[in-house]
UniProtKB/TrEMBL annotation:
InterPro entries: Tscrpt_reg_Rrf2, WH-like_DNA-bd_sf, WH_DNA-bd_sf
Keywords: DNA-binding
NCBIfam families: rrf2_super
Pfam family, one: Rrf2
PANTHER family in UniProt: HTH-TYPE TRANSCRIPTIONAL REPRESSOR NSRR, WINGED HELIX-TURN-HELIX TRANSCRIPTIONAL REGULATOR, RRF2 FAMILY
Superkingdom field: Bacteria
Record keyword Ribonucleoprotein present: no
UniProt name for this protein: Rrf2 family transcriptional regulator
Length: 154
């Protein structure tokens, strides 16, 4: 049971935004912090916005913020919103059921139960539950627009 990088990035975005609840955060700032592709992150943020997790504000003072409080965002809800499917094996996909063992194999049922338990555990946790009470050591919010190029110091 493995999450895609798309879901991983979505969870990172939400955690980052939860650490700065009163501020507008830029996509570039998050991409730089996690050292991930800005272009990929734009797609992730768009889906987070369309699913009601993130509020996007355009313009000079714009940026990203959480649409809901961390206490109301369930991790399982985020994972289900970001993942395309939970086909743990090819036999989970009706179009791919070509396994010769399928009529007698109990593995599909075992993995289905395990998957249900996995998602129930994620449903039990909120963003607030997984957010540390204090920011990790060394986490400092960097305003990318405030970074001065060499030689431009005041």
């Amino acid at each position: 049971m493995q999450l895609t990088s798309y879901t991983d990035y979505a969870l990172r975005v939400l955690l980052y935004l939860a650490m700065f609840p009163e501020q507008q955060v830029k996509i570039t700032e998050i991409a730089d912090f996690f050292n991930i592709s800005r272009n990929h992150l734009v797609k992730v943020v768009h889906q987070l916005g369309s699913k009601g997790f993130v509020k996007t504000t355009r313009g000079r003072g714009g940026g990203l913020s959480l649409q809901r409080t961390p206490e109301t965002i369930r991790i399982g809800e985020v994972v289900r919103s970001m993942e395309n499917h939970f086909n743990w094996l090819e036999c989970f996909d009706p179009a791919q059921q070509n396994c010769r063992l399928l009529p007698t194999c109990g593995l599909k049922h075992l993995l289905a139960k395990a998957g249900d338990t996995y998602l129930q555990m994620l449903d039990a946790a909120t963003l607030a539950d997984v957010l540390s009470s204090s920011a990790p050591a060394g986490l400092a919010r960097i305003e990318t627009s405030a970074i001065l190029a060499p030689g431009n110091a005041p």
